[in-house]
């Protein structure tokens, strides 16, 4: 739609002209109830009336307001009625002849969403109740009310909402119901994308937080947490409040700036596209953080991390906001770092840095090696660019770099810089230099050099140890060699710890020497370790201080091949696994060797989050990087190993649960599938394993994918679990069945129709793409390239991203698929840059997979020849 993709230049021009004094937004969502759906052609709508008071620096000029709506009833500018058909084009309202002081009133019919963008409407199949919530980032508040949709035009907001009788409504500020209308306290100046409305018959639990500061001042924060009524039996609000209070204490201790937004509500909402969103006073989360079945400690740690991540945003992002999406890292990188920092410092999850090293950094390493990699401070030309930059670079690499920064300047200087930054820029907007200047003051370091290397260049460095021994078998010289990809040649300064490990008399592999050093340039000698006993393992990023790919010398690699499970330090062990996984992805370690390491050592892994990550990596090794002729053998070995560890795990333990889920993910033979079916029907038992409803669905998917669970069996399971969650699971299982007709129907539902909600689109795609069905899916490669440009043009960007990423023919791993991808890119050079980026990323993953398969095949050939 013309004008929908706001550019950075347009935003800068408008910000130079306008300053916003306030918004009054009145919504009437009583239309959310009642029959009718979205397949009839006309969308279901609600009334939105917005009054914006703003100033203009150059009276007489023309500007515009943003609104995406099916229709506009009336527009008034400074008392003049404007013809909506003349000033509204579907995404913008033209504002001519602006005065110095202006008042704009827009009365519109806005559409409820089924894609999680704007005002999302969800009908619970379990009880027919309707639930609403809003989600805006980066620019979807314009789907709910008229505004100036850019982060640097902050303003106070007053919301009022007319809702169906019996509903409760929440927004950023505290609210009261009077005369059938919910009215909310005016907010502090905030950006449009973090305003929020949640409405419906939610199950709501309350608590409170109190804090007395050193000066005697007391802060009282009302706390609330909510979910759908159908999830209330599973809602452990006490744990949510515990982490919330621990986080508020932690950030008050470290930020020296009281929480500024009054109340603190947290809503767990259905069909949510994100993990969570930091709307001040009204944080929204995906409801999957309410666990319907038994989960491991890792899931609770992950939820706590997200709660703390969003809480950190109250300062980094909400109180102080980036000027434009170029500096998205100013909020997301900091929140990602602070989530783990606070998790370790304030909660029961003291090993959260292990999860960070193993899981979050894996996301960053992948993103930083794609052709679309970008500096942490990115070049964001428009809103489509912004949408795609909520990625592993902005989040996980940015957080990793901040961890390196803390090592570089010291934790005290880092936190004092943050405190000065908040106080200096409260309720304002900032750029990179604003934060760097505060950090220079507190650390005494030149932050410009650091920023140029770490924030303004792309790519990941590799660090490899070089060890020379003297005649007595001691270290004569230990050096760290730094390398960079040819496409991104920057060699960065790294503050690293180098650890030396040897086996003890009990067989354990433990560190006996360590030195911290500044690595700079292609080769750095670690003089402090000269003369030490010869190591069996050298860790060049011990304690995970920096962001890099760790490599090993031959002695270290040989040690890991035989003794990886003997490493006693869980963080060092997690880092070794991560390094070996990176080597597999880089075609330096054959996939079958990585699978073998998992089979031999994963059963000894004490950290449940690392174990679950190893399961995912082993699966990916087999699907993407193993030579095709070895896949069947690999499947059998993984299934046998999973079953062996399942039976060996302590009854009722989280390791047992993790191995049961892994078995389901790799099951393919008659015996494996028979066991899963037996566990479902009660004919088979594994001592201590409770097959709850979520685990039942996990067992049903492989049965469906291999033709061992038909439509009637899936219907019977839905009858058992006729809930929103159950329907998503059933849709995924239905699409997983190995039938040409099934695949055709799933394709049509996702690509040729927009009848499905965002959650059901994702479930259908997840079921559609089964690694065991490569031949069945082969015809869809050509269809994919014929369809994606139309999908991108006709659907919302969220659905477009899900379809383009999810249906790429990644399982058709051949040179022909690579050539077809290249042909599409060559023929569509003028396609939307965001669409081309998604295809380029998928192409890179495919090419990487083919290199990995060649490495695996070569290893097999060498073994045979030997």
Supply the key terms.
alpha+beta, 866 residues, 28 helices
Helix content: 40-55%
What is the general shape?
globular
Total number of helical segments? 28
Derived from helix and strand composition plus strand pairing, the structural class reads alpha+beta
Q: Flag low-confidence runs.
A: none
Beta-strand residue percentage: 15-25%
What gap, in angstroms, lies between the N and C termini?
62 Å
Q: Describe the oligomeric state of these chains in a short phrase.
A: single chain
**What is the residue-averaged pLDDT?**
95
The biggest beta sheet is recorded as:
12 strands, mixed
Number of strands: 28
Radius of gyration: 28 Å
Describe this structure in words.
The protein is α+β, with helices and mostly antiparallel strands. Helices cover 43% and strands 20% of the residues. Strands 1, 2, 4, 5, 7, 8, 9, 10, 11, 12, 13 and 14 form a twelve-stranded mixed beta sheet that branches. Strands 15-16-17-19-18 form a five-stranded mixed beta sheet, covered by helices on one side. Strands 26-23-22-28 form a four-stranded mixed beta sheet. The protein is globular, with a radius of gyration of 28 Å. The protein starts with 7 loop residues before the first helix and ends with a helix. The model has no long low-confidence stretch (mean pLDDT 95).
């Amino acid at each position: 739609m013309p004008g929908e993709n706001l550019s950075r230049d347009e935003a800068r021009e408008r910000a130079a002209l306008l300053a916003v004094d306030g918004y009054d937004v009145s919504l009437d969502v009583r239309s959310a109830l009642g029959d009718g759906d979205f397949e009839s052609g006309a969308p279901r709508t609600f009334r939105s009336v917005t009054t914006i008071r703003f100033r203009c620096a150059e009276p007489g000029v023309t500007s515009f307001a943003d609104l995406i709506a099916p229709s506009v009833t009336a527009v008034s500018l400074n008392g003049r009625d404007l013809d909506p058909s003349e000033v509204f084009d579907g995404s913008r309202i033209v504002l001519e002849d602006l005065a110095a002081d202006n008042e704009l009133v827009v009365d519109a019919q806005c559409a409820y969403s089924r894609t999680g963008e704007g005002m999302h409407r969800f009908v619970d199949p379990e009880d027919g109740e309707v639930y609403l919530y809003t989600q805006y980032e980066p620019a979807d508040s314009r789907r709910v009310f008229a505004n100036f949709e850019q982060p640097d035009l902050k303003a106070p907001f007053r919301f009022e909402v007319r809702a169906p009788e019996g509903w409760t409504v929440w927004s950023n500020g505290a609210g009261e119901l009077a005369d059938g209308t919910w009215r909310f306290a005016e907010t502090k100046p905030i950006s449009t994308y973090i305003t929020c409305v949640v409405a419906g018959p939610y199950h709501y639990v309350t608590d409170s937080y109190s804090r007395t500061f050193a000066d005697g001042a007391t802060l009282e924060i009302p706390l609330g947490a909510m979910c759908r009524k159908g999830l209330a039996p599973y809602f452990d609000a006490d744990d949510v409040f515990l982490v919330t209070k621990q986080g508020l204490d932690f950030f008050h201790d470290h930020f020296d700036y009281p929480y500024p937004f009054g109340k603190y509500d947290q809503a767990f909402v259905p069909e949510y596209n994100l993990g969570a969103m930091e709307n001040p006073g009204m944080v929204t989360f995906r409801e999957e953080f309410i666990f319907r079945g038994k989960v491991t400690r890792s899931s609770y740690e992950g939820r706590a991390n997200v709660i703390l991540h969003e809480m950190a945003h109250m300062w980094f992002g909400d109180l102080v906001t980036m000027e434009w999406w170029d500096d998205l890292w100013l909020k997301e990188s900091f929140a990602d770092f602070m989530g783990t920092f606070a998790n370790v410092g304030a909660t029961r999850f003291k090993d959260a840095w292990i999860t960070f090293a193993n899981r979050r950094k894996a996301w960053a390493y992948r993103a930083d090696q794609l052709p679309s990699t970008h500096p942490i401070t990115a070049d964001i030309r428009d809103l489509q660019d912004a949408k795609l930059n909520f990625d592993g670079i902005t989040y996980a690499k940015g957080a990793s770099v901040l961890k390196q920064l803390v090592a570089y300047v010291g934790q005290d200087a880092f936190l004092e810089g943050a405190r000065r930054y908040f106080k200096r820029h409260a309720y304002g907007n900032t750029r990179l230099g604003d934060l760097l200047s505060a950090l220079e003051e507190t650390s005494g370091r030149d932050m410009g050099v650091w920023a140029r290397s770490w924030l303004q260049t792309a790519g990941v460095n590799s660090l490899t140890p070089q060890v020379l021994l003297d005649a007595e078998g001691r270290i004569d010289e230990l050096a760290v060699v730094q390398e960079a990809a040819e496409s991104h040649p920057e060699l960065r300064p790294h503050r690293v710890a180098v650890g030396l490990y040897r086996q003890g008399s009990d067989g354990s592999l433990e560190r006996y020497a360590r030195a911290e050093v500044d690595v700079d340039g292609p080769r750095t000698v670690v003089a402090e370790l000269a003369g030490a006993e010869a190591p069996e393992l050298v860790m060049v990023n011990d304690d995970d201080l920096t962001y890099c790919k760790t490599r090993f010398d031959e002695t270290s690699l040989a040690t890991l091949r035989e003794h990886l499970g003997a490493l006693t330090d869980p963080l060092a062990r997690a880092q070794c696994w991560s390094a070996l996984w990176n080597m597999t992805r880089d075609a330096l370690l054959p996939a079958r060797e990585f699978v073998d390491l998992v089979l031999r050592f994963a059963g000894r892994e004490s950290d449940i989050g690392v174990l679950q990550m190893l399961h995912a990596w082993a699966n990916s090794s087999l699907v993407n990087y193993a030579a095709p002729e070895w896949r069947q053998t690999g499947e059998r070995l993984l299934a046998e190993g999973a079953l062996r560890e399942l039976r060996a795990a302590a009854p009722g333990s989280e390791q047992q649960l993790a191995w049961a889920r892994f078995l389901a993910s790799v099951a393919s033979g008659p015996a494996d599938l028979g066991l899963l079916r037996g566990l479902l029907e009660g004919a088979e038992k594994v001592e201590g394993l409770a097959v709850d409803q979520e685990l039942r669905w996990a067992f049903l998917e492989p049965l469906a994918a291999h033709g061992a669970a038909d439509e009637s069996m899936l219907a019977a399971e839905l009858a058992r679990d006729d809930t929103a969650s159950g329907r998503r699971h059933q849709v995924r299982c239905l699409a997983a069945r190995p039938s040409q007709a099934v695949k055709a129907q799933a394709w049509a539902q996702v690509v040729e129709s927009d009848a499905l909600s965002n959650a059901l689109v994702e479930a259908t795609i997840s079921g559609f793409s089964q690694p065991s069905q490569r031949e069945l899916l082969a015809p869809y490669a050509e269809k994919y390239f014929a369809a994606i440009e139309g999908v991108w043009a006709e659907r919302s960007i969220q659905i477009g991203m899900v379809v383009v990423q999810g249906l790429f023919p990644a399982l058709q791993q051949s040179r022909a698929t690579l050539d077809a991808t290249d042909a599409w890119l060559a023929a569509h050079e003028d396609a939307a840059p965001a669409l081309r980026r998604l295809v380029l990323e998928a192409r890179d993953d495919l090419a990487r997979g083919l290199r990995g398969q060649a490495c695996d095949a070569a290893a097999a050939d060498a073994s045979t020849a030997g």
